[in-house]
Structures are given as structure tokens and as C-alpha cells.
Design goal:
206 residues; 0% strand; mainly alpha; single chain
């Protein structure tokens, strides 16, 4: 049981660290290059989609023929690459939806924090309500950002950049706290299982 939890949590930690670093970098871009940010984001998204598409295509051709019929790698890889090229070739048009994408990212991250808070409360962690509060605040900011009430694009980008940067830092601290809480929980669970094993009566030989 403990080994399974540790494997699952190891994947969770890796994904969370990568996501937090990405959010911090995005926040810095929005803070220091607010007017260029939308184009930069479009180029970055386009590049990532193209790389992902190429990887899918390569994986398709490396698959054994027996598995090729059940694979959508070539189609998916081509689709990702084409969408990536559209982002790079025409960033000005797509920049209009970047603010919406950022708002959606904030809302999703806020909901994820709320989920972490619920998970922490279920294992009786002490400060789960802090994570819950931050999750609600981030979700509300994301909803407000959907309507861009800040007037100018540059001001909007800087404010969202600051929010993303702080949020990414908080994600790393949250990960540290969640890791500590889960480790305490799994240790207690292992101790409980060990006591149960010791308590099982052994039939005496007749």
C-alpha cells in the first residue's frame, strides 16, 4: 500500500514542479514584456505543439506494425504540428484568445488547489484551510481576468504576471507541505498495518 502511494505521489511531485516552474516563467514574461507577451506566448505554444506533434509522428513510425492499426499517432501528430504552425505564423489573431487561455489556466489551478485542500483535510493535515483559501482566491482572480477589467492590455498582463509568479512560488511551498503531510500519513498507515499483522492470531499446531 505504502509503495503504491509513493509511486503515485512521485509522479504527482514531478508534474507539479514542472507546472510551477512553467507558471513562474510565464509570470516573469508577462511582468517584463507585457506588450510582447501575447506574441511570445503564441510562439512558445506553437513551438511546443510542433515538437509534440513531431514526437507523436516519430512514435507512430517506431511502433510495431501490429500496433499501428490501433494508433492515432500520425493523425494526432500532424494535427498538433499544423495547429502549432498556425500559432507561429499568425500570432496576432490568436493573441486575442491568449488572455482567455491565461484566465482558464488560473481557474484550473485554483480548482486544483481546492482539490489539494480537500485531500489534505481528509488526511487530517493541520493547515489545509490555507491551501483552500489560496485556491478560492486564484479561482476568483481567474474569473475576473476573463473580463479584463484593468483597462489597458499592458496593465492587465503585468497584474496577471504578478499573480502567476506568486502562484507558482506558492505551488512549490504547497508541494513541500503536501509532501510532508502525505509522508506522515503513509508512515502512520504503515504502522497501523504492521500492528494489524502482529495482532492476527496464529492457530496452534494440533
Amino acid at each position: 500500500m505504502k509503495g503504491t502511494l509513493e509511486r503515485i505521489f512521485s509522479e504527482f511531485k514531478k508534474d507539479t514542479i514542472l507546472l510551477a516552474i512553467g507558471v513562474i516563467i510565464l509570470g516573469l514574461i508577462l511582468i517584463f514584456f507585457p506588450l510582447m507577451a501575447t506574441d511570445i506566448i503564441c510562439y512558445a505554444i506553437g513551438g511546443l505543439l510542433i515538437v509534440g506533434g513531431i514526437c507523436k509522428i516519430v512514435e507512430y513510425f517506431r511502433e510495431p506494425p501490429a500496433y499501428a492499426f490501433g494508433s492515432f499517432g500520425l493523425m494526432l501528430g500532424t494535427l498538433l504540428s499544423v495547429v502549432g504552425l498556425v500559432f507561429i505564423i499568425n500570432p496576432g489573431v490568436l493573441a486575442k484568445i491568449v488572455t482567455t487561455i491565461i484566465a482558464v489556466i488560473l481557474i484550473a489551478d485554483g480548482v486544483l488547489k481546492i482539490q489539494h485542500a480537500v485531500n489534505l483535510s481528509r488526511i487530517k493535515a493541520a493547515r489545509w484551510w490555507i491551501v483552500l483559501t489560496v485556491g478560492i482566491v486564484i479561482s476568483v482572480i481567474g474569473i475576473i481576468a476573463m473580463f479584463n477589467p484593468f483597462g489597458t492590455v499592458a496593465l492587465f498582463m503585468r497584474i496577471i504576471g504578478i499573480v502567476l509568479f506568486i502562484n507558482g512560488i506558492f505551488d512549490l511551498f504547497t508541494l513541500f507541505y503536501v509532501t510532508k503531510s502525505v509522508r506522515t500519513f503513509t508512515d502512520a498507515l504503515s504502522e497501523h498495518e504492521a500492528l494489524n499483522v502482529e495482532a492476527v492470531p496464529v492457530d496452534e499446531e494440533k
